């Protein structure tokens, strides 16, 4: 997809789920056109560094070994700390601290792994919200939900979709009927730009209700930069979702989607029961596939003719998104 803005936005981006990074292992990643290595050191902390060893260029994600808090190159055994600085050279008396790898800030929360991307290499300028405290009047906790990974999580790798396009779904009230075969039109009840967050409240009216303001369900959404969004359902069930889109390069993204399903009282099994998994498939994962069928083949339209009720929130979203584009498109 050709877009008039960069595929290298600043912000937090999801790169996987915590369980995919077991202690003592290193794994290659590729995002924003850069080769990376993720490793979980023996103390349980997860680190992401540029992948290529400054000695002779080996890829630390392919055969690199975890040694304490360091990652050790598979080629000649040089060790690097979580800050990316060379800590030892096994056949020399001292390390060479001028040899270093860029360290990418990591935030692991609610089973997900996020990295901070800033094309200029700067430190994080804002924090992701806590999904258990969003929105403020609907607090929850991990113990009230089945785990999201792996049963209720999917990844679509290498899709030709820019992250902003996925966020544009939130203020697009018309597409639900056509793409998701919704029997009632949702209404965007409220939306607000709040610094690095774009928040929405969508309402689903009761089909039989006379009162047009009576909602069967509200969905609270927050886009956390352009990397992705959280959604929390306020209805008879309080599902929580994350959906993040992380550019692999200037043409493709990996997409990550997770659902937290409310736990049955008294059930302390970690995994969601099969009948809920089936419902998640029909009610949630299918909607993502429906959207993806559009996004995969869509072109970006700069001045769209929008439905009247969508025009302002849509325009506000696009304007808000510009703050994350600090470099020119490639
Ligand atoms: S290439 Fe990494 S130690 Fe030589
Ligand atoms: Fe959608």
Describe what you observe in this structure.
The protein has 330 residues and is α+β, with helices and mostly antiparallel strands. The protein is built from 4 helices and 18 strands. It has helices spanning 163-167, 175-179, 274-295, 308-321; strands at 11-17, 26-31, 34-40, 46-50, 65-67, 70-72, 79-80, 86-88, 103-104, 106-109, 112-117, 153-159, 187-194, 197-205, 215-224, 228-234, 240-247, 253-260. The strands form 4 sheets. The chain has a 7-stranded antiparallel β-sheet. The chain has a 4-stranded antiparallel β-sheet with strand order 2-3-4-9, with no helix packed on it. Strands 5-6-7-8 form a 4-stranded antiparallel β-sheet, with no helix packed on it. A hairpin with a 3-residue loop joins strand 15 and strand 16. 34% of the residues are buried. The model has no long low-confidence stretch (mean pLDDT 95). The structure holds FE2/S2 (inorganic) cluster and fe (ii) ion.
Topology:
Layout: E1 11-17, E2 26-31, E3 34-40, E4 46-50, E5 65-67, E6 70-72, E7 79-80, E8 86-88, E9 103-104, E10 106-109, E11 112-117, E12 153-159, H1 163-167, H2 175-179, E13 187-194, E14 197-205, E15 215-224, E16 228-234, E17 240-247, E18 253-260, H3 274-295, H4 308-321
Antiparallel strand pairs: 1-11, 2-3, 3-4, 4-9, 5-6, 6-7, 7-8, 10-11, 12-18, 13-14, 14-15, 15-16, 16-17, 17-18
This protein binds FE2/S2 (inorganic) cluster and fe (ii) ion.
């Amino acid at each position: 997809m050709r877009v008039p803005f960069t595929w290298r936005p600043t912000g937090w981006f999801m790169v996987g789920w915590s369980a995919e990074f077991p202690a003592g292992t290193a794994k290659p990643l590729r995002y924003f056109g850069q080769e990376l290595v993720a490793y979980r050191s023996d103390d349980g902390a997860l680190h992401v560094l540029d992948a290529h060893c400054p000695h002779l260029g080996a890829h630390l994600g392919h055969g690199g070994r975890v040694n304490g808090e360091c990652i050790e190159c598979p080629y000649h055994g040089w060790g690097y700390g979580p800050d990316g600085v060379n800590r030892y050279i096994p056949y020399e008396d001292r390390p060479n601290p001028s040899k270093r790898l860029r360290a990418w800030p990591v935030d692991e929360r609610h089973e997900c792994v996020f990295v901070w991307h800033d094309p200029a290499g700067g430190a994080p300028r804002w924090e992701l919200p806590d999904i258990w405290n969003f929105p403020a009047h609907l607090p929850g906790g991990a113990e009230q939900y089945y785990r999201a990974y792996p049963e209720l999580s999917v990844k679509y790798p290498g899709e030709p979709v820019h992250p902003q396009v996925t966020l544009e779904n939130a203020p697009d009230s018309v597409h639900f009927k056509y793409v998701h075969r919704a029997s009632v039109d949702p209404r965007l009840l409220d939306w607000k730009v709040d610094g690095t967050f774009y928040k929405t409240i969508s309402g689903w009216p009761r089909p039989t209700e006379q009162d047009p303001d009576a909602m069967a369900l509200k969905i609270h959404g927050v886009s956390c930069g352009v990397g992705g969004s959280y959604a929390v359902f306020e209805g008879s069930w309080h599902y929580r979702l994350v959906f993040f889109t992380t550019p692999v390069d200037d043409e493709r993204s990996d997409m990550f989607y997770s659902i937290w399903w409310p736990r049955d009282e008294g059930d302390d099994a970690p995994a969601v029961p099969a009948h809920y998994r089936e419902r998640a498939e029909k009610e949630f994962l299918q909607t993502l596939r429906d959207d993806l069928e559009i996004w995969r083949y869509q072109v970006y339209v700069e001045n769209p003719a929008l439905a009247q009720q969508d025009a302002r929130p849509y325009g506000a979203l696009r304007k808000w998104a510009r703050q994350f584009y600090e470099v020119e498109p490639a």
